User: Which sequence fits this backbone?
């Protein structure tokens, strides 16, 4: 089976000459289908830059990145946008919900951009909201939901896309301890059903849920450890 993520000698450089910064410096990484991987690192370690490259939000200066076997380096902006919309389900720290839209409308939105017909996107959105325990909150707007519920809407939005990769960037960063546990339990369930998850975090308790923890330092992989060996 083709790996979901294949990176070979990925480098991202900002600036030139004495001002040059190698935010990511020669990273090679493979994530197989069904893996749950946490990427950790202190501020300035390169984890956010690496997340942007994995999510096709940015492109590497050099190296090869393939998602589902598709070489990202060969794609123009429109094709990159299609990759993001069809292959990656994003979960962000700030939820990124549209304030005046209901939960179900927020979940439907990326499906609308994909061109999914109305009845099908409504079915998928409601199914995803049921999955995250918010079937009875589908018509509530974000300001009528707690932070933990808003993040679960964001998880539902990613799930409804049926992506190859769930990419979560500090998904519990704005949540209290109870909501954090709820969201992490939900991600565990999603992973148990076979979804591939990459989570970016600086929190040990979040990384501890993953099968594999990759630690970055100065743009390079410092360690790559399976849960069984921790």
Assistant:
């Amino acid at each position: 089976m083709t790996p979901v993520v294949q990176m070979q000698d990925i480098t991202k450089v900002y600036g030139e000459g004495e001002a040059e910064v190698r935010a990511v410096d020669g990273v090679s990484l493979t994530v197989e289908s069904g893996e749950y991987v946490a990427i950790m690192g202190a501020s300035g370690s390169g984890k956010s830059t690496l997340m942007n490259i994995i999510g096709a939000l940015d492109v590497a200066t050099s190296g090869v990145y393939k998602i589902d076997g598709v070489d990202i380096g060969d794609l123009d902006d429109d094709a990159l946008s299609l990759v993001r919309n069809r292959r990656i389900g994003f979960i962000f720290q700030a939820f990124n919900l549209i304030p005046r839209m209901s939960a179900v409308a927020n979940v439907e939105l990326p499906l609308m951009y994909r061109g999914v017909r109305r009845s099908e996107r409504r079915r998928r959105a409601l199914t995803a909201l049921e999955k995250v325990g918010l079937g009875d909150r589908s018509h509530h707007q974000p300001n009528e939901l707690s932070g933990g519920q808003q993040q679960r809407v964001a998880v539902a939005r990613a799930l409804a896309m049926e992506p190859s990769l769930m990419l979560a960037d500090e998904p519990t960063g704005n949540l209290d301890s109870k909501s954090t546990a709820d969201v992490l339990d939900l991600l565990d369930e999603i992973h148990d059903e076979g979804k591939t998850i990459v989570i970016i975090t600086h929190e040990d308790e979040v990384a501890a849920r993953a099968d594999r923890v990759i630690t970055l330092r100065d743009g390079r992989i410092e360690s790559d450890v399976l849960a069984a060996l921790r």
Q: What stands out?
A: The beta strands are 5-14, 21-31, 36-40, 62-67, 70-71, 88-92, 165-169, 196-200, 212-217, 220-226. The mean pLDDT is 93. The chain is about 35% helix and 25% strand. Helices lie at 47-54, 77-87, 103-114, 118-131, 147-160, 177-192, 204-207.
